[in-house]
């Protein structure tokens, strides 16, 4: 035996499990990257965390595991992003935990999907509480494919404006912009999936046709640019049970200059109760009962 | 067999005549047991200290040894090095009848000793000491990268694992071939 090192894998499995369970998520993650064997053994140490809140933000992954532990993966930094072939790659990835420990890994040709799958297998994630994809580098379709088989309770897809500074002056901007142009197509594909709640922060990218094929119970259209007429049409179709599974709609108008026109929206709509609040619009619909919540609207004449 | 009566000094305060609290409530004299490791050096340990080891505690309960019988038949732990057993006995004596603190800084810092200690402690089923040892092992890789972890914990790379697997298969194949040849020879 090498006298200066510790042959961990020669320990009995009970002891090995206890050691791995003492380790933090970040340490466990580092350990799992040592080899294929440690990737499998690492599962012994992952505490029960059947649910996870995932946020694919800007250049980071934020994983908040069900047991209160969070992991953030940061892909490089703006000044080290380089063009390699047609891909944007980062020179390293940093992984940090909620107790401010972190490790930096050199990982050229880093593929976010690989990391998602690695974390998913290591921590035995079964349910995603909320999935937020807000970075053009993380393509919604490929992320959702990587997460297939997992239960997703809520989904948010956003993109940021203005464009990220590091994209200026490099050809990948075109790819990103093309992706943005294809964005509504991606949403159409996503809407076919079954979600209890769907958050769409599309800045006007979501069309009426896409909403009509929506297959979720609670729809959140944040930053919508639907016109008052569109909303009225949507409500009428909804009340006529054209959209069968939808139970509630929530709309906010942060991208619109003018407030929602309550008169136009509710034209021809029958409702049981009308609630007033500060922002946006919320409609809930149950068999034989409709509740309309009006937020920050122009007053009825 | 060489014999050094370790642990007697730490056991002394438990004697009815020397313990200050014994005046208030006379205690039953503490019984002692004997253990030895690979080096055959016998260590005398009080029953109270041995309570930490679920294995030895179970052996004592099942065997129902008297002190004379215990002296004549020390528990043999041939798979544990003498110095490691000494460490374990010392720890048991230090923590006899005391609540175990959350941290223990007296554990060996040398990795090879710690490895042997972990194996011994796991074998003797000393739960608290095993937890301390496991914490110490986990601390080795605090803030380390996968490459450093691989180095510290002697984790083979995928290529090394594959090579070892191939080698093992080859060896198993050779052994199987040897066995069939021997069986055929026996049949003749």
UniProtKB/TrEMBL annotation, chain A:
Pfam families: F-box, FBA_2. Transmembrane segments: none annotated. Residues 5-61 form the F-box domain. InterPro entries: F-box_dom (IPR001810), F-box_Sdz-33 (IPR012885), Zygotic_Embryogenesis-Asso (IPR053222). This is F-box domain-containing protein.
UniProtKB/TrEMBL annotation, chain B:
Pathway: Protein modification; protein ubiquitination. Residues 127-170 form the SKP1 component dimerisation domain. SMART domains: Skp1. Residues 165-177 have a biased composition (Basic and acidic residues). Residues 8-25, 178-188 have a biased composition (Low complexity). One of its GO terms (biological process) is ubiquitin-dependent protein catabolic process. The keyword Heme does not apply. Residues 1-25, 160-188 are annotated as: Disordered. Residues 38-96 form the SKP1 component POZ domain. Keywords: Ubl conjugation pathway. InterPro entries: SKP1, SKP1-like, SKP1-like_dim_sf, SKP1/BTB/POZ_sf, Skp1_comp_dimer, Skp1_comp_POZ. Probable essential component of SCF (SKP1-CUL1-F-box protein) E3 ubiquitin-protein ligase complexes, which mediate the ubiquitination and subsequent proteasomal degradation of target proteins. Regulates cell proliferation during embryonic and larval development. Belongs to the SKP1 family. This is Skp1-related protein. It comes from Caenorhabditis nigoni.
